[in-house]
């Protein structure tokens, strides 16, 4: 009989979607974490890369991104803001669900959050991870860290952890990008660049090609890029379909005046010998410039907040690449604490609390709504193998 590690009774048998109400008593806001001073940078990077044998010289290369911002990653303050926004939305709606916050790689750690939950008498947690898509690093690794934290704290069997579904196509996550692309295209047009000379770059974190291929359940048959690439491509199509262009301004039919778009990747960190998802955003900008594109709208569709890989890799490196070609470049905001996003996260929690039937759950692509309980073998890391993970069917 299937049994899910650390799950509530409603999820323990491993259904794809849990349509039974669960009396959760707290929300676990789970994030990546980041350094908060120069002395934290290298220890933080060691945490992130533990078990991968990354040499100190390579860590120093990455460290300069953080050192350029005083050694402080913006992600922790962004999580504090998101936690406060969630608490305010819960209070506005009269929902008594406290929020505890824990990180995978820096203070406060997930184990700190579980100890806090235990001290406050919370035993049923619904986890909201700060990553919307399916892959090892954006879903399964979070689930592994939930399992590790339960073991480290000795709270396995005392605290139960379920998680909300990956929310890549939930309206609350997608709407901020729809708004942002609309505003970005208007800004480009105001600078005199036509839609035909504009390209929309949807960008997300590159991952190893082997991890991409294993993202999502194999039974779905997503192809070489797995669920990870398929989910991003589907969201990009939704965002672009929501854009309108006034034909009176262009003299052409609206459908003929939308800019082209593509999915690109950023923040690659692996050795050159290991294939990662491509093209890199900077290479894509170079190619677009060679093709006569005069403006790019950069959409960080893979990220929920303006953390380091947005501030450095996009706001510094990608904008510099565009500037080198005298291209107009506009970077669209991430969801952050956009009201639609905050409301959407609370709605996702209530889906599980109330056991909302899957037919009544909003999803803007035909890929979702995604699974509540991750499927067997989902998002395998081929190099590390399967480890115990909460909120999913083994392995």
TrEMBL record:
Pathways per UniProt: Porphyrin-containing compound metabolism; protoheme biosynthesis
Superkingdom of origin: Bacteria
Entry-linked InterPro entries: Ferrochelatase (IPR001015), Ferrochelatase_C (IPR033644), Ferrochelatase_N (IPR033659)
Pfam families listed in its UniProt record: Ferrochelatase
Catalysed reactions, semicolon-separated: Fe-coproporphyrin III + 2 H(+) = coproporphyrin III + Fe(2+)
Location in or out of the cell: Cytoplasm
Class of the enzyme per the UniProt entry, highest EC level: lyase
Region (Disordered): 248-271
Enzyme Commission designation: 4.99.1.9
Keywords noted in UniProt: Cytoplasm, Heme biosynthesis, Iron, Lyase, Metal-binding, Porphyrin biosynthesis
Keyword Transmembrane listed: no
Biased composition (Polar residues): 257-270
Listed CDD domains: Ferrochelatase_C, Ferrochelatase_N
Function: Involved in coproporphyrin-dependent heme b biosynthesis. Catalyzes the insertion of ferrous iron into coproporphyrin III to form Fe-coproporphyrin III.
PANTHER family linked to this entry: FERROCHELATASE, FERROCHELATASE, MITOCHONDRIAL
Stated family: Belongs to the ferrochelatase family.
UniProt protein name: Coproporphyrin III ferrochelatase
Originating organism: Rhodoglobus aureus
Lineage: Bacteria, Bacillati, Actinomycetota, Actinomycetes, Micrococcales
């Amino acid at each position: 009989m299937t049994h899910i590690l650390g799950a509530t009774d409603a999820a323990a048998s491993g259904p794809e979607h849990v349509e039974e109400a669960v009396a959760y008593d707290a929300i676990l806001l789970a994030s990546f974490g980041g350094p908060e001073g120069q002395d934290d940078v290298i220890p933080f990077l060691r945490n992130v890369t533990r078990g991968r044998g990354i040499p100190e010289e390579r860590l120093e290369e990455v460290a300069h991104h953080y050192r350029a911002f005083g050694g402080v990653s913006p992600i922790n303050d962004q999580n504090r803001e998101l936690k406060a926004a969630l608490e305010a939305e819960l209070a506005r709606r009269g929902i008594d669900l406290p929020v505890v916050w824990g990180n995978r790689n820096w203070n406060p750690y997930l184990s700190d959050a579980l100890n806090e939950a235990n001290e406050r008498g919370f035993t049923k947690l619904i986890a909201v991870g700060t990553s919307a898509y399916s892959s090892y690093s954006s879903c399964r690794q979070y689930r592994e860290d939930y399992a590790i934290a339960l073991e480290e704290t000795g709270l396995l069997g005392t605290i139960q952890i379920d998680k909300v579904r990956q929310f890549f196509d939930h309206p609350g996550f997608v709407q901020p990008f729809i708004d942002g692309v609309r505003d970005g295209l208007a800004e480009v047009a105001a600078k005199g660049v036509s839609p035909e000379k504009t390209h929309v770059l949807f960008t997300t974190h590159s991952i190893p090609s082997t991890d991409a291929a294993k993202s999502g359940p194999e039974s779905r048959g997503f192809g070489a890029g797995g669920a990870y690439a398929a989910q991003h491509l589907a969201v990009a199509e939704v965002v672009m379909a929501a854009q309108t262009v006034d034909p009176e301004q262009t003299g052409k039919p609206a459908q003929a005046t939308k800019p082209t778009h593509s999915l690109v990747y950023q923040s690659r960190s692996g050795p050159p010998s290991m294939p990662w998802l491509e093209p890199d955003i900077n290479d894509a900008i170079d190619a677009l410039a060679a093709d006569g594109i005069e403006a790019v709208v950069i959409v960080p569709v893979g990220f929920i907040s303006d953390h380091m890989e947005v501030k450095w890799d996009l706001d510094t490196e990608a904008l510099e690449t565009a500037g080198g070609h005298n291209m107009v470049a506009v970077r669209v905001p991430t969801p952050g604490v956009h009201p639609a996003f905050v409301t959407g996260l609370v709605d996702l929690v209530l889906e599980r609390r109330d056991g909302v039937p899957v037919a009544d759950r909003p999803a803007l692509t035909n890929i979702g709504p995604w699974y509540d309980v991750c499927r067997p073998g989902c998002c395998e890391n081929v190099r590390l193998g399967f480890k115990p993970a909460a909120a999913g069917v083994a392995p």
